[in-house]
Amino acid sequence: MKSFLYIPLILLSGILAFTACSEKETDLGVALQDPATLFDGNSVTAYGSACTVFDDSLLTSGLRYVLVGFYSNPTFGTSEAILYTQVSIDNDNGVDFSQNFTIDSVVLSLAVSELYPAKASSKSYRDLHFEVYQLSECMMKDSAYYASNSIDINGTVFFDDIVRLAESDSMVVKIPLNDNFKALLQNKSYATSADFVEAVKGLRIRIANDGTPVMATLNMSATATTMTAYYTYSNNGDAINGSTDFVVGQTSPHFNQYINNYSSDLSVFNTNINDSIEGSQQVFLCPMGGTNIKLNFNTFIQQFKQEHPLAIIHYAELLLPVANSSPEDRPETIVALKSYMDGAVANIPDFYDSHSGYDGTYDKTTGCYRLRITQHLQKLVKSGFDLGTLLVIEGRRSSAQHAIINGSDSAATNGNPIRIQFIYSE
Length: 426
Hints:
- This protein is mainly β.
- It has helices at residues 6-27, 179-182, 193-200, 298-307, 374-383, and strands spanning 42-46, 49-54, 65-73, 77-85, 87-88, 95-96, 101-116, 125-135, 153-166, 171-177, 189-190, 203-207, 214-219, 226-235, 238-248, 254-261, 276-278, 282-285, 291-296, 312-321, 334-339, 345-347, 359-363, 368-372, 389-393, 403-406, 419-425.
- 13% of the residues lie in helices and 42% in strands.
- Mean pLDDT is 86; it is low at 1-32.
C-alpha cells in the first residue's frame, strides 16, 4: 500500500482521539459538582417572609397507612394521632355463636410498618400503652372524615394495658381484648354484617401518653391487620377448636384524628382565627399536624423586576436552613408549590425538570434543604409579582416525620434565614 493512503487514516484517528479525550475531560466530575457553581453571571440573594399555615382539608379516611401515638416537640408543642375504625364481616352472611360456642379469646392484630422516632440502637423492645374503647355510634361507610373529626366513645373499655412490641422488619401488635368484647360474641347471632356492625359500633384506638413519645405507623391493608375470635365448639361431646376473622381497616371504614397543641412561645398566631403562625424565627413543616410553610418574596420580585426588566435567570435555588431544634429523623424531600390568585396551588415547573441539582433534599454540608427553582423564579420575575410559594413534605400526609426550619428574619436566625440564591445576566 502506498504511503499517502495512510494520511487520511492518521488524520481520522487523531480527530477521534481528540474528540473522545475532549468529551471525557469535559464531563469528568460534573455530576459531583455543585450545580450553583456551573453558571457565570451576577450572584444575588433574595429575602422574603415566611409563616406556618394549616392544612384544613387533611382527608384521613380510608388511608392505607395510619398513625397511632404522640410526640412532643419543644418548639411547637405536642401532636397526637388517634385511630377510629369499624369491625366488620368480610361477607354478608352474618355470624352465629349462639349454639354450643364458647368464646375463648379475641385478639386485635395491627401491622406496624415503622415507629417514630426510630431508636438509634439495634432492634429492641418497645412497651406501648394501648387503649381500645367502643364507639358510641357507627361510622358512615361512604362519608369523608378529616383530621379534625372525631367520634364519641360510650365508656366501654376493650383494652387498657401495656403491649410489648419487638422491633423488627416485620412488626405486629397483638392486643387481647377483654370480656367486654367477648360478650358481644358469646351466645350471640348476627344475621348480616350490618347487624354485627350495629352491635359492635367501632373502636377508638390510641397510645396513652406515659411520658415516652412514640408514633406507630399502621398498615391497614396488611393481611396481618385483623381481628380474630378463637372459640371452642361442642359437638356431641367433642370439643372442636376454631377461629373466625373480622375485618379491621382495609375495606372497613377508618380514619385518623390529629390533635395538635401549639403551646410554645413561637406559636404566636397571626390572626384571631388562627389561620397561620408568624415565622420570622422558625416555621414548622408537618404532614400529620396539617402544617405547611408559606413563603413570599413579592417585595424583592417587584424591585428586581423594576431594576432588571430583561434579567435572565441561569440558576436559582431555595435554601431552607434546618433549625437546631429540628428532629434528626427528618423528611427525605420537601417540594415547592406555586400559588395562584384563586388560592389553587400546583407544582413549580422545576419539579418536572430532570436536570441535575438539589431538588428538595437535605444537604449536610450546608445544613439546608435545597430546592432548585430556576424556572419558577424566572416566571415570577417575568410577571413582576409573587403570590406565594407553599412548601410541603413529599410523601404520605399520614407521616409522623416533621422538620423545623429557620424563619425569614436574618437577625432572629443568627444570619441564616430562608432565602433564595440565584445567578442572572441581562
